[in-house]
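Write out this protein's structure.
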Amino acid sequence: MRKREGQLVASTEADADDDPRFVAALARGLSVLRAFRRGDAGLGNQDLATRTGLAKSTISRLTYTLSRLGYLEYSASTGRYSLSVAALALGFSALGGLAVRDVARPMMQALADNVGCSVALGAPDRRTMVYIEHCRGSSPLHIGMEIGAHVRMATSAMGRAYLASLDASARDRLLDEICPPDDMGAFMRDGVRRSVDQLRLNGFVTSIGEWQSEINSVGVPLLLHGSQPYALNCGGSAHVLTAARLDDIGRDLVALARQVQMAFGRQD
């Protein structure tokens, strides 16, 4: 069955029950910070309880502590919390430490300029993919995504590229978490199965109006030695990035991923 947004917190703690090194209180605190999304004006304790699946009494203690530590800001007039500059600084520090962005950025921009569409680099973040680099092409029609934005894993080309690169058992476990037990879930699973075949045959995967209508995209996994997995994608309006262009751009993305891998000493 599909997990509620907060059930992943509980399952993570359950998986670590036998590990004495795992600090459950820290995991809960981090789940509160992760609950904030792009565009949130502020969240109350009840909002955070709903998103994390934690009890409201637990949330109250966590938000108080995080506020005292400077990671959340509290508005007495609205009774809501927002991420502070200190919390945002953690994200920017993490981005600054990702050498792959510096290596891939000029290659990504060259491809974006060549095809006229956006090229992005992302990494898995539980059940979504998060953009960690984004280069715009010349087309006036843009998707509107920025660094830090999240996209659905099972319907986006970036997410499908990542999923298709996993071994079958790991992919099935993740699909059990992100796919609802209904027609939409079956649609998502079918798309991922097609992507596995596409990756094996072509080296890239596609999403034609499946992430968002009127948006086409193509993606490839980017696997580096001793690093977390990444994925690259090129996406844009279906009027600009037509289905007929996806194969050519897919091959360009495969070449881009190979260049980045070679820069990090990986030849395969």
